[in-house]
Amino acid sequence: MMSKKISRRTFIKAALTTGIALGGGLVLGCGGNENTMPSGKLPVKFLRQIITKDSTTSRCIMWQSDSPMTEPIIEITIGDEVKKIPAQNSTFTDDDTENFQYTAQIDGLKPNSTYEFKIVDGAKSTENFELKTYDENKFKGIIFSDSQSANYEVWGGVAKSAFEKNPDAEFFINMGDLVDNGEDRTQWEAWMTQVEEPLTKLPFVPIMGNHECYARDWKERYPMAYLNYFAVPENDNKYFNRRYYSFDFGAAHFVVLDSQWDELETFAPGIIEAQINWLRKDLENTKKAWKIVCIHRDVLQYKIIDRDDWNEGFSSVGTTFMPEFDFWNVDVVFTAHLHTYRNRGHIRDFNEDPTGPLYILTGLSGDVRYPGLWANHTLDKFVAPQPETDNFLTIEGDDKNLIIKCFLPDGTKLDEVKLTKKENQEEISE
Ligand SMILES: [Fe+2]
Ligand SMILES: [Fe+2]
Questions:
Q1: Which regions of the chain carry the CATH code 3.60.21.10?
Q2: Domain 135-420, CATH among 3.30.70.270, 3.60.21.10, 3.90.190.20, 3.20.20.70
Q3: Residue 338 C-alpha to ligand 1 middle, in angstroms?
Q4: Alpha-carbon distance 221 to 212, whole Å?
């Protein structure tokens, strides 16, 4: 596996250095989506809505600009009042580039409402953007996994199809490895360009993967770009700020965990203990019907075909967190990293058990594929047809039902699970 990874990285690096076209002809390093606006219009790029702890009443808005802004504010009409919310300057330097960036938090919204807002800086302002708040019970989101690519148009195609087929989606999640190289600014811009429209309209839930933690020379580094681009909810630990967090959406409480201690322990030690202490308090305090965990690395270890020294079992992420998920009666655990979709059904105490959390390995949404790499695991219930291309998931429900579906980009349904909060959880798998 390592030799495949190195050769692919070397190829991508060479392509970036020389500027040659990759895959279907996209040259990495597209310049973004800045609109050329007439005088008086404020140009912003990569405007994005970021998840907050409570999407019924609040939203975080972030954007970039090509030059510094003076005193940007968000203007939003709430009821009869036009509110002016000052943005924080969250400009950061990474990959030898100063990224002019601004962040504003909007609070005090009403559930199930539609608002319009614009960004104003001095005499200039943007067009209006739409912001929706959501229900406290019913919800629907889209889940993407591992969008890292040589050609980000592949990611864009999967995302476009998912949003077109699910115009009622209220938020979207990316399970980590958003980009192949976490330092490469051109890849971040290519990634955001492909989902420009959904980012402006729907709250986005990012999850950090190991590829967010690689420098241009492929050495491990602290994921500065990822942590700066996405101002996710606080976790009350400044030392590990933005690396793990939780939020409510509809009838569900979502927990996002960090599984990158192999990459980051030397930079910031102690995240396993800090996360477990935080996780216990977080899960104890939620009153939501569903407890859903999202974590980049998988809990199982899969045998690598043709290698006798890499056998099936449980990963260190699994042995670390699965007993906690059992104890707190987590309903669903979504994982990623292996670039394959697998439904492993319910597992408790490291065994198949209908009372345990449901474990879904979410697949991939970019062009980095591992054909013929992973053997099936004894706990696999459904494996996507091999060799795999791409997929996306939907998750919808209310306080009684939770339905998870996996689709190919063309809309073909691969798998469906329904959980019901009644005497015994009832499951239908296709
Ligand atoms: Fe990945
Ligand atoms: Fe990964």
A1: 135-420
A2: 3.60.21.10
A3: 6
A4: 9
d(CA 117, ligand 2 centre) in Å: 36
Neighbours of ion ligand 2 (CB under 5 A): 177, 209-210, 337
Sign of CA dihedral 118, 119, 121, 127: negative
Residues 6 or more apart whose CB falls under 8 angstroms from that of 3 comprise none
Helix and strand numbers (H, E) in the chain are 8, 26
CA 294 from centre of chain: 9
CA dist 358 and 348 (Å) reads: 9
94-130, pLDDT tens digit by residue? 999 999 999 999 999 999 999 999 999 999 999 999 9
Does domain 45-132 sit in CATH 3.40.630.40? no
Ligand 1: distance of its center to the CA of 80 in Å? 47
Q: Report, as an integer, the average pLDDT of 386-405.
A: 97
Taking the centre of ligand 1 as the mean of its atom positions, its distance from the CA of residue 339, in whole angstroms, is 6
pLDDT greater at residue 28 or residue 160: 160
pLDDT of residue 3: 35
pLDDT for 37 beyond 90: no
381 vs 360: CA distance, rounded Å: 10
Q: Which amino acid is at 335?
A: T
d(CA 302, CA 180): 22
Question: Do 199 and 48 touch, CB atoms closer than 8 A?
Answer: yes
Which ranges in the chain are annotated with CATH 2.60.40.380?
A: 45-132
Q: Which ligand is nearest to the CA of 8?
A: 1
Phi, psi of 171 (to 5 degrees): -160, 165
